[in-house]
UniProtKB/TrEMBL annotation:
SUPFAM superfamilies named among the record's database cross-references: Acyl-CoA N-acyltransferases (Nat) (SSF55729), GHMP Kinase, C-terminal domain (SSF55060), Ribosomal protein S5 domain 2-like (SSF54211)
Protein name in the entry: 4-diphosphocytidyl-2-C-methyl-D-erythritol kinase
Gene Ontology BP terms: isopentenyl diphosphate biosynthetic process, methylerythritol 4-phosphate pathway; terpenoid biosynthetic process
Known pathway: Isoprenoid biosynthesis; isopentenyl diphosphate biosynthesis via DXP pathway; isopentenyl diphosphate from 1-deoxy-D-xylulose 5-phosphate: step 3/6
Membership in a protein family: Belongs to the GHMP kinase family. IspE subfamily.
Active site residues according to the UniProt entry: K188, D313
Record function comment: Catalyzes the phosphorylation of the position 2 hydroxy group of 4-diphosphocytidyl-2C-methyl-D-erythritol.
Gene3D superfamilies documented for this protein: 3.30.230.10, 3.40.630.30, GHMP kinase, C-terminal domain
InterPro entries, alphabetized: Acyl_CoA_acyltransferase, GHMP_kinase_C_dom, GHMP_kinase_C_sf, GHMP_kinase_N_dom, GNAT_dom, IspE, Ribosomal_Su5_D2-typ_SF, Ribsml_uS5_D2-typ_fold_subgr
HAMAP family xrefs: IspE (MF_00061)
Pfam family, one: Acetyltransf_1
Positions that bind ATP: P271, M272, G273, G274, G275, L276, G277, G278, G279, S280, S281
């Protein structure tokens, strides 16, 4: 008999419900010596929403479809460990296995994502805290070990009493051959885009700045022994043979001469046809991840070369660094950009790139820009923006609305538009006012792709597990 709940990734619209679950669950600690600290430490909605956007929160939905529990993972410490930031179940739904299912679901994802352990801080003397986690493979650890510095700082910042709290850790085995693995495929923004000419082969000479985001799709990959490349699910309306991730896997298999195959599943979050590089990023993640899983041994240059055969944007995702780009997008110079948060608005308009390149009104002979002219703000336009604005009223409306908060820009050839802000709070305040006609996403820009971090974890999981001190 199936349980009266199911688990899925949380969505931003559930933030308020999850905060309410936490407030209800914390009431169980009334009368405990740690109660004053627990009462004061309310869940930060903006941080929870950011974690949801990155796919780090899972929710248990009851029979009526309403949230009854959730688990939130925190990867801020970096490296090969991830922490349980919060796990709560509505008290009236307790003792039904929901907490255990959420915990196991989160640990299974962490293992698939290449993490080697899951950490947490909890109360030592509460039956549904430390004893519960012990039954699920968590061991008490030395909270003063360097590996737990972030957890200890969090506890002290919230006034949790040292004598009552214990830190615990659960080691995770590396994914075995034939297991599913999880890999990020981040979105990108074009902070400016200029067309400086047209080559004899018909391709356009571009200059742009690719800004990688810590938000995007997730690829699930499982090695097959029969050489078949099969897509499991996939984007609606995209045949498997046209899917860039499938094409990337087949190209790598043929180039490297391997006999293995793969099952490919994609959790799509990046809007299709939005100028955010979703298909290109999926392709790059397939190349990088399968090069590791199949043991092909190709270096970054070789993978970027294969990526270029799939699309002009694929190499920047393979190399995994925000960059100044020239040529058709293949000549890349890594850039260190200021820490910024972005409001990305999806006007739900699919904008085909090919048609825009043929537009007679497109400016194709702009004077070349330089990196200093971009840094100074002189080079900030997008050559496609006036064309898209004139042809797609939904995009024009999104630019106009977002422009009420600052300088709104088109990404790539559209149709998504974005606003750069200095903080997560500022971006979230804008996104929460988004009209129903659009969908808003909030994400930080990053200089180094989450795909590079994931590759380092998976490589480490193959042989270099960390072993913090056990108490």
């Amino acid at each position: 008999m199936s349980p009266p709940f199911h688990i899925e990734r949380a969505v931003p619209a559930q933030v308020d419900a999850l905060c309410a679950i936490e407030r209800a669950a914390v009431q169980l600690f009334r009368g405990h010596p740690a109660w004053p600290a627990y009462e004061a430490a309310s869940l930060p909605p903006d941080q929870l929403e950011a974690a949801i956007a990155r796919g780090l929160v899972w929710v248990a939905l009851g029979e009526a479809g309403a949230p009854v529990g959730f688990v939130w993972l925190d990867d801020e410490a970096g490296g090969d460990a991830v922490a349980v930031a919060e796990i709560d179940v509505l008290p009236r739904h307790g003792r039904r296995g929901i907490g255990a299912a959420l915990l196991e679901h989160a640990c299974a994802w962490a293992r698939a994502a290449g993490y080697r352990r899951v950490d947490l801080g909890t109360l030592a003397d509460v039956p549904w805290n430390a004893p519960f986690y012990a039954r699920h493979g968590f061991r008490p650890m030395d909270k003063h070990a360097p590996a737990y510095a972030a957890l200890l700082a969090h506890d002290r910042a919230h006034g949790f009493p040292d004598r009552l709290r214990v830190f615990m850790s659960r080691p995770l085995e590396p994914a075995a051959p034939g297991d599913w693995t999880a890999w990020p495929a981040p979105a990108k923004l074009n902070l400016f885009l200029r067309i400086t000419g047209r080559r004899p082969d018909g391709y356009h000479e571009l200059q742009t700045v690719f800004r990688l985001l810590d938000w995007g799709d997730e690829l699930r990959l499982r090695v097959r022994g029969d050489g078949e490349i099969r897509r499991v699910g996939g984007a609606p309306g995209v045949p498997a043979d046209d899917d860039l991730a499938v094409r990337a896997a087949r190209l790598l298999r043929e180039h490297a001469g391997v006999g293995a195959g793969a099952d490919i599943g994609i959790d799509k979050r990046i809007p299709m046809g939005g100028g955010l590089g979703g298909g290109s990023s999926d392709a790059a993640t397939a190349l990088v991840a399968l090069n590791h899983l199949w043991g092909c041994g190709l270096d970054e240059d070789a993978l970027a070369g294969l990526g270029r055969r799939l699309g002009a944007d694929v190499p920047v995702f393979v190399r995994g660094r925000s960059a100044w780009a020239e040529g058709v997008g293949e000549r890349l110079t890594p850039l260190a950009l200021p820490r910024r948060w972005y409001v990305v608005l999806d006007p739900r308009a699919h904008v085909p790139t090919a048609g825009l390149f043929q537009a007679p009104e497109l400016t194709r002979n702009a004077a070349p820009a330089t990196i200093p002219s971009f840094v100074s703000g002189e080079a900030a336009e997008n050559a496609f923006e006036p064309v898209v604005r004139a042809r797609y009223p939904e995009v024009a409306a999104a630019l106009d609305w977002l422009g009420g908060f600052g300088r709104a820009r088109l990404s790539g050839s559209g149709g998504c538009v974005f606003l750069e802000t200095a903080s997560r709070g500022q971006a979230r305040r804008v996104a929460r006012q988004c009209p129903a006609a659009f969908a808003a996403h909030v994400a930080p820009g990053v200089d180094t792709s989450p795909l590079r971090r994931a590759l380092a974890r998976h490589r480490g999981a193959a042989g270099n597990a960390s072993t913090p001190a056990q108490r």
